[in-house]
Amino acid sequence: MLVCGASFAGLAVARELAGGGADVLLVDRYEIGERATSACAAPRPWLEAMGVAAAIREELPHMTFTTPHGSVRYRLPWSWAAFDYRELCRLLFEQCDARFEIATVRGRGPGGTVASDRGELRAPLVVDALGWRRVLAREGNQPPEAPLSRGLEVHPPSGERAVPASVRSPSSHAGAGALDVWIDRSLIRYGYGWNVPAGGEQRVGVGSYEPRHHVKRPTVELAEQLERPPVRFQGNWFPHRLRRAAEDGVFFVGDSAGHCFPLSGEGIRTAFYFGSACGRELSAVLDGRRSRHEALARYARFSASHRRAFGLALRLQWLVPRLPPRALTLALRGLGRQRLVDRAFGWYLDQAHPSFATRRYAAAAAATSVAPSPVAAGAQQESSSTPRYSRP
Which of 80, 160, 186, 384 has the most CB atoms lying inside 10 A of its own CB? Predict the structure, then answer.
């Protein structure tokens, strides 16, 4: 089988297929772990569940939220963890038994093949984990028309710094161990800024829910306000709406399926979550328990079953930037009681809970089952084929 994309989602899929005897080809245009495009922070329980806790560089048990009218600090019921991207990808790949090759996937080829700069790829089971571009879909997914947000960050070195009196910084009073968030229309109209301590560096950035709004200037401004040099830029687009998780015989996972939580823009945990679900469905095909048709239908229904939570987050994404700043500040302070913090952030983690990384998928997805397909035997025979390049 063929997994296109070797970052969080693709590696999660390949990890689930390890030990099953399948010939899995993992392709990406970069070496594994070569190119990070996110702030690289995720709930620590998920990193532990995926066996990659050794990549953690700093634990962040608190969050601070700052508006033009004040700051609040929450102690979370779980911790964020900033990690080293290259190390995390290495640890994930060590848990796989897939082959890896560098190739740039360009789209669908003739006869159901996958076109790449290395020639045509053929496999009966294909996964698109290539990110927001949704390369293997029938229709394009290009900004600014697509439901995408955009983010950019810089990576200055860590160290003590004085915060100018004109800048309201949660870090100036919150102390170590906090993921800092700014919600300030003077910084970005529809979005937020962040600061993620990560051991020897800071990850300072700005995200915009409106893809037409540029983020370089506010990112530089935020870094300079924190007296950090705006160096080592990295950024990307990220989705804020679920897309079809199965289409034309292809499994879509991670950003290509819109598996990025609206409002927060968090996509690493959801890539692990839906990547694991996709891998378990593929495993069921490979060992003859399901046909490809059944696996596609089950996985699509499993992804769609999260529409309510994603839809709520999307409505909050629309609402929060439009609230009067004073009202938003009061709402954040009202949420500050520990019981409410535990309930709100507990609900947030529950939408893709780390226990899913270890518990059996059959129990987790029982409600998404579909009727058996009459093509099961044929699909099982087909799935045993080895993915291969077909040279032009």
Answer: 80
Hunting for tokens 């692990």 — which residue is that? 272
According to DSSP, residue 27 is labeled: E
Could you tell me the sign of the dihedral formed by the alpha carbons of 29, 23, 133, 257, in that order?
Answer: negative
pLDDT in tens, 212-254: 999 999 999 999 999 999 999 999 999 999 999 999 999 999 9
List the domains of the chain with CATH numbers: 2-385 (3.50.50.60)
Strands 250-252 and 126-128: parallel
Query: In this structure, what token pair is assigned to residue 338?
Result: 């520990």
The alpha carbons of the chain give a radius of gyration, in whole angstroms, of 21
| Nearest CA among 130, 139, 145, 350 for reference residue 255 | 130
Token digits of residue 297? 């239908």
- For residue 207, which of 155, 152, 259 has the smallest C-alpha distance? 152
Please give the Cα distance from 282 to 304 (Å, whole number): 18
Query: Nearest to residue 232, comparing CAs of 28, 39, 87, 33?
Result: 39
Q: Helix, strand or coil for residue 209?
A: coil
Query: Phi and psi of 27, rounded to 5°?
Result: -125, 150
- Kindly report, residue by residue over 287-342, the tens digit of the pLDDT: 999 999 999 999 999 999 999 999 999 999 999 999 999 999 999 999 999 999 99
**250 touches 240 (CB < 8 A):** no
* Burial of residue 57, with CB atoms counted within 10 A of its CB: 0-12 exposed, 13-18 middle, 19 or more buried: middle
Closest by CA position to 236, among listed 217, 208, 263: 208
Query: Kindly report the CA angle at 229 between 225 and 235, in degrees rounded to 5?
Result: 95
Is the distance from CB of 1 to CB of 286 less than 8 angstroms?
Answer: yes
Measured CA to CA, the distance from residue 114 to residue 300 in angstroms comes to 21
Q: What is the DSSP letter of 112?
A: G
Q: What are 184-195's pLDDT values in tens digits?
A: 999 999 999 999
Q: Side by side, which strands form the sheet with 246-247?
A: 99-102, 25-28, 2-4, 126-128, 250-252, 246-247
Determine the Cα–Cα distance for residues 183 and 207; give it in Å rounded to an integer.
10
User: What is the C-alpha to C-alpha distance for residues 292 and 285, in angstroms, rounded to an integer?
Assistant: 6
Ramachandran bin of 339, using left for φ above 0, alpha for ψ from -120 to 50, beta for the remaining angles: alpha
Do β-strands 246-247 and 70-83 pair in parallel, antiparallel, or remain unpaired?
unpaired
